[in-house]
Amino acid sequence: MGFKLGMKRAGFSLLELLVVMAVIVLFTVGIGVSLTDGRVGYQLRSAEQVGMRMVRAARAEAILKQTRSRLLIKASGVGDEDGLRLMGIIYEDPDVSDRWYGVGKGRRLPRGVYYWPEKSTLSSGPMMRLNYPRKDAQFAGVGEEWYYLEFDRRGHLDTGSVRWVMGVASQKEDGGIGFYSETKTGGFYVFRLGAMGPLRGVEGL
Q: Which end of the chain has fewer CB within 10 Å, C or N?
């Protein structure tokens, strides 16, 4: 009998392989974007926790010492890795006006997250010059430039409520700080009596 059995096709056609490869690429890109967004969210949440702990510590220092205290945030300097990241606490000598003592060595925001002056109402207030960290007493007016949040001896803000905003950023070629997007931000409010609340869901101050 001269019957020929039909041969089964082996493998995939070029079109089918291209479709499979396209699906794999789209899936991989989707996973990558998801992981990146998750990492950014984690960085911002960590930064919020660090900032809020420093605010509480500065307020506690004022109440404990019964004098003014300030939470410092280092202003951005060209090529300065600590600019807009390093925070510190100082308190005023109860007997000598404008003479300050440092507390500890300070704390930095997580790498890749920076304090955002243009979005924060804290930055619209005064700035000070001081050498920090440094535990021995010093008068303000000499040293590096800092933004600051001030508490009186009752633990109340002297400026009223403020908005503290942080964003994901990187250092630019000229040494400045470049923020990526307003959607990649975090932060909190500090109210006059010392309480804090999230940025989301709070309308105005």
A: N
Predicted pLDDT at 16: 65
For the beta carbon of residue 3, count every other beta carbon within 10 angstroms. Answer: 4
Distance (Å, whole) CA 139 – CA 133: 14
Question: Which residues make Cβ contacts (< 8 Å) with residue 169, sequence separation at least 6?
Answer: 112, 113, 114, 116, 177, 178, 179, 180
Give CA–CA dist 167/153, Å, rounded: 31
d(CA 168, CA 182): 9
| Total residue length of the chain | 205
Q: Which residue has the tokens 């059995």?
A: 5
Would you say residue 94 has pLDDT above 80?
A: yes
Mean pLDDT of 18-22: 68
More reliable by pLDDT, 29 or 54: 54
Distance CA 63, CA 89 (A): 13
The predicted structure's pLDDT at residue 29 = 45
Report DSSP letters for 139-193, one per residue.
Answer: ETTSSEEEEEEEE-TTS-BSS--EEEEEEEEEE-TTS-EEE--TTSEEEEEE-TT
Beta strands 127-130; 69-74: pairing state: unpaired
